[in-house]
């Protein structure tokens, strides 16, 4: 380890980048080695811990993964990635209410975290608590107007909550840009049929 702060910073970044590259390639051992090296240069950084946590989670080692993510969240309370990953562990262990809270916390920090958004909507639906997801879906769509998958998720949630006019308006946004979208057209037809009865 070098005593030069700039040198240490550079080595940290190199190890972190290598860890991420190896993780994407499925080379877990090399990724772990590089994330661990990165921590020796800057033990107070959350990014290597998140990398190690993701690898542990991928391997099915939930408790070590949880420890890595908790440490990352302690170091950086604004880490939406750590909170989202803690939510994933809660969901995997049947603690869906706690998972929902973690996903909400992640999205309060970063409303653009699409992965957290989609699992939030899924867990909220499974708990019959879609009103907890709808505001986050809307906030995301303020930033990404034409994300059709999220638009459809919002339309579905609104439909399930009985908010037919708002659901129809959301579906029209999809069909305006993508008239061939069969899912949106089918849901619109379903809502129109229910509204007519």
Write structural notes for this entry.
The chain starts with a helix and ends with a helix. The protein has eleven helices and no strands. The longest helix is centred in the N-terminal third of the chain and has 21 residues, at 5-25. The chain has 197 residues and is mostly helical. The chain has a domain at 1-77: Tetratricopeptide repeat domain (Serine Threonine Protein Phosphatase 5, Tetratricopeptide repeat), CATH 1.25.40. Helix 5 packs parallel to helix 7 (114-126). Helix content is 78%, strand content 0%.
Name of the CATH architecture of the domain at 1-77 = Alpha Horseshoe
Could you report the average pLDDT, rounded to the nearest whole number? 94
Q: How much of the polypeptide forms β-strand, as a percent range?
A: under 5%
* CATH topology-level fold name of the domain at 1-77: Serine Threonine Protein Phosphatase 5, Tetratricopeptide repeat
Mind summarizing the main beta sheet? none
Short key terms for the protein model shown above:
single chain; Serine Threonine Protein Phosphatase 5, Tetratricopeptide repeat; mainly alpha; 197 residues; 11 helices
């Amino acid at each position: 380890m070098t005593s030069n702060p700039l040198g240490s910073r550079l080595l940290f970044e190199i190890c972190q980048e290598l860890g991420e590259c190896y993780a994407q390639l499925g080379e877990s051992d090399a990724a772990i080695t590089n994330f661990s090296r990165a921590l020796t240069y800057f033990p107070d950084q959350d990014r290597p811990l998140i990398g190690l946590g993701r690898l542990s989670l991928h391997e099915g080692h939930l408790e070590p993964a949880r420890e890595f993510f908790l440490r990352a969240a302690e170091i950086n309370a604004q880490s939406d990635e750590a909170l989202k990953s803690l939510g994933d562990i809660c969901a995997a262990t049947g603690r869906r209410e706690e998972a929902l809270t973690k996903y909400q916390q992640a999205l309060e920090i970063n409303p653009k975290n699409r992965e957290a958004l989609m699992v939030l909507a899924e867990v909220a639906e499974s708990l019959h608590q879609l009103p907890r997801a709808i505001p986050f879906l809307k906030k995301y769509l303020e930033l990404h107007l034409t994300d059709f998958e999220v638009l459809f998720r919002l339309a579905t949630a609104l439909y399930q909550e009985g908010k037919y006019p708002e659901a129809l308006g959301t579906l029209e946004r999809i069909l305006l840009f993508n008239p061939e979208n069969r899912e949106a057209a089918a849901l619109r037809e379903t809502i129109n049929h229910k509204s007519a009865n």
